[in-house]
Amino acid sequence: MAITFTMLFLGILLGFIGAGGSGFIIALLTVVFGVPIHTALGTSLAAMVFTTLSGAYSHYRQGNIDVKMGLAVGCFGAVTSFLGSGIAVWIPVDSLHWLTAGMLFLSAVMLLVRLFIVSRMEDKGAEPQRRLFMKAAFVGIVCGLLSGTFGIGSAPFIQLGLLAVLGLSVQKSVGTTMLVILPIALAGGIGYYFEGYFDMILLLQVLAGTMIGSYLGARFTNYVPLPVLKSAMVLTPIMAGFILLF
C-alpha cells in the first residue's frame, strides 16, 4: 500500500506538469522502497505502456499524430529497446544507478532545448520518402536503445528527433511521441520480463497510483502560469537523478 500511495502523489505531480515520470518512478522504487534497479527499470517501462495509451488516443483524435512516421520510429525503437534490456542486465548495479541518473540529467538538458529553442522551429515540409524513412530509423534506433537500457521514456529525445531531424511541427511532435513510446515501452518491458526482472504485483501497485494521480493532477494544469510548468518539467528529471545518486 505504501508504494501505491507514494505513486498516487507522484502521479498527481506528473499529471500536473504533463510528464511521463519514468525516471522518478525508478528513483523512488530503488531508493525509497529498495526495489532492485533492474526490476525498477522493467516495471517503469511496462507502466509507460498503460500511462501513454490514453494520451496517444487523445492526440490521435485531435489530429496531432503522424501515424506513419510514429509507427516507423516506434518499430525501429522497439527492436533496440528489446536489445537494450539485454544490455542493461550486464551493467553492474552501482554503475547502472549512475548511468540512469546521468541520462535523467541529460534528459533535463534536452527538455530545456526543446522548450526554449527547438519549439520555435517550423515544419520543414515534404521530403523524399526514402530519406524520411532513413531518418525515422535513426531516431527510433537511438531512442529505443536509450529507453531499453536505462528504463526511461526518452520523450525529450524522441520529440527533439521528430522536430529537428524529421521536421514535424511542435504539435505533431508532441502527439507522435506518445505513439512512438508505446512499442518502445512494450518491447523493453517484454525484454526485462524474459531477463527475469519483472514483478506483476509491483507493476499493478505503480499503475494504481500513477494513473489515478495523473488524472487528478491534470485537472490543475490550466491554473498554473506556463513558465512555472516549463520549470517544473525540467526540474522533475533533475530531482529524480539526484535521488538515484543517494
TrEMBL record:
Subcellular location: Cell membrane; Membrane
Keyword Transmembrane: yes
Entry GO terms, CC: plasma membrane
UniProtKB keywords: Cell membrane, Membrane, Transmembrane, Transmembrane helix
Domain of life of the native organism: Bacteria
Annotated InterPro entries: TM_pro_TauE-like, TSUP/Inactive_protease-like
Transmembrane segments: 7-31, 37-57, 69-91, 97-117, 138-168, 174-194, 201-218, 224-245
Membrane protein topology class: Multi-pass membrane protein
Pfam family, one: TauE
Family according to the record: Belongs to the 4-toluene sulfonate uptake permease (TSUP) (TC 2.A.102) family.
Alphabetized PANTHER family for the sequence: MEMBRANE TRANSPORTER PROTEIN MJ0441-RELATED, MEMBRANE TRANSPORTER PROTEIN YJNA-RELATED
Annotated protein name in UniProt: Probable membrane transporter protein
